[in-house]
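Deviation from plan, reported transparently: zinc ion complex.
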Amino acid sequence: MTLEIEQIPVLTDNYIYLLRDTASGACAVVDPALAEPVLARLAARGLTLDLIFNTHHHGDHVGGNLELKRATGCRIIGPAADAARIPGIDETVGDGDETALGSARARVFDVPGHTRGHIAYWFADDQALFCGDTLFALGCGRLFEGTPAQMWRSLSKLRALPGATRVYCAHEYTQANARFALSLENDNPALRARAAAVDRAREQGRPTVPSTLAEEIATNPFLRADQEGLRRALGPAFAAADAVTILGETRRRKDVF
Ligand code: ZN
Ligand code: FE
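Because the crystal trials were delayed, the predicted structure below was used instead.
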């Protein structure tokens, strides 16, 4: 483990992650929605920014790119499939590529669905996954540019990682996601316990992110599209439906919840 991870809450519910590789001192941010809060933390800690890792092109993930690059001279790494929409991009990565922050190495996964070029960064040695708006605590991103089949394939890739992996998603949506998840699987004891813990954390102003992948697998409906409990929750019309259909229906219901 060489990675220090600081969570910077910005805007209404976004998280920027400030990473420092303790071995080399190299620093990066993941998905800087804004530049100013990052510059403030760098100054307060006496750090120099070397890299930006972007997961996808939405403004609340790349909004600080150009200003941070101007202010620090950092390099910007982002999805090859979406290079034209990532401001200031210097280096593109795609599925299976390896990238690094100093000695901390990350594997890249293509995870289309929320957007067509969305990627995730997995630091295996540090058990940390930066998945942007693909996988949320108890949820998943809206399907703006992708299909349920793409999203299910993307989520299945992430689900295959070790259960101890910490899920550093880009938004604090967990409490609302928990209410939706409970509307489906109210009889899932792990989900009920987690929803109560989420309520307590939010009452006390604490973040609910990161979670672990094992928690998500036990409670997140979008990772459970091939599980009997969720299928039953959707009703008799879905008794014989496949995981992609279940995922699509679950996403559709969440969109109007
Ligand atoms: Zn997004
Ligand atoms: Fe977002």
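The longest helix spans residues 189-203. We consider this an acceptable substitute for the interim report.
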